[in-house]
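Q: Start with the shorter request: fold the first protein.
A: Done. Sequence, then structure:
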Amino acid sequence: MDKTPKRQFHFPLSVLITESGKLQQAVADTLFAAILPRLGGASAAADFEALRETLHQEIVKQSGQGGDSGTLTQAQNDALHEMRRLASGARRSASLALKGQDVVLSGEFQIGQSETDSTLGGEVGRARKTHAASVKYATALAEEAWMASDATDFIAAIEIVAEADLAQEAALADGTKFTAAVTNAANAVYARSLRVQNACRLQWPLPRPGQTIAPETVNARSRFLVDSFPPRNKNTPDGNTPGASTSGTQV
């Protein structure tokens, strides 16, 4: 008897990989920090990423392949080089500015953590943590020549490489079979994606009829894919979207 658990979604795994990655990035974006209390606090982005990493590892186990830089475009490789350069610069600046604070240097700036995950996704994850630390300790790092513009260039490069990593993950997922382990991991990522979107709807609701929607609400709901994920099936009344409103009131 087949004991494989049932999938909670009915679209390609590659779509889940790509869209959940965008949602995780939105949670990590300081512009949307107001959503964090609804998601358990400051660890929300890391918790979401951990679920996605579990799914990634199950896919890799099945395929025997991981993401790397071999198939990147020239622009993506340029961004990867810039990301690595600025990650190194931030860590070097931190080593000078925060001497003796080994927990901060290792845990927040990821110094000495390069061997924990050699995939492109792992490198992006470490770069994100390093960037967050560079912003948190900006004043201290400024004493060692690190500038706000370096942090801006750093996150710009990270986002380009992250998009490439999502594309690689999606391509890898296309040939994945839904074993029990993959299905459970995918369901967990899907459930967290819906939770994040629900938090967005609660934090940035649509205005009452006749009122003007605020630009920040438009931006937030767009970044959290409120109107585009999960992909809707127009042949069914609620588009097969869990939690779809039946009252006729949009939220």
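Q: Next, the second protein, separately.
A: Sequence, then structure:
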Amino acid sequence: MIRIGHGYDVHRLEAGDGFVVGGVTVACAFSVVAHSDGDVAIHALCDALLGAAGLGDIGRHFPDTDAQWQGADSRLFLRRVRALLAQDGWQVGNVDLTVVAQQPRLAAHIEAMRAVLAEDLEVAFSCVNVKATTTEGLGPVGRLEGIAAHAVALIVTGTDT
């Protein structure tokens, strides 16, 4: 059996010295405003995986009203989501993410993101795809007010769940 899920996340940007996206620290003139580390790629991916498994969303499992998640490393969220899926007999088939950011340019970080995500999901590097795009200066992302990410995930199981 297979299932597909979609996730989306967006965070506001402010002046700073960098942020984490796809589990990779990117040095730049911005920081992300968030309760946790604000990794939009991992947050979108968690939502895609949870959605595919019918397990709600990231806010249900890691609410921003809970002090224990203040400043949390989003890789922890992803590893816990993978474990939740495994408990229900699911494993990750493949994932595809698109990070939407006007700045900084992320192309130089894509392969590192893929490696981090593959490690945390316990899948082959080839099962993780990450892309980056801009909004050509349009909207809040184009005005450097925020960063966003979309994720699609395929999960598979050998049983009819």
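Q: Describe the second briefly.
A: Residues 81 and 95 are 14 Å apart (CA to CA). The chain has five helices and seven strands.
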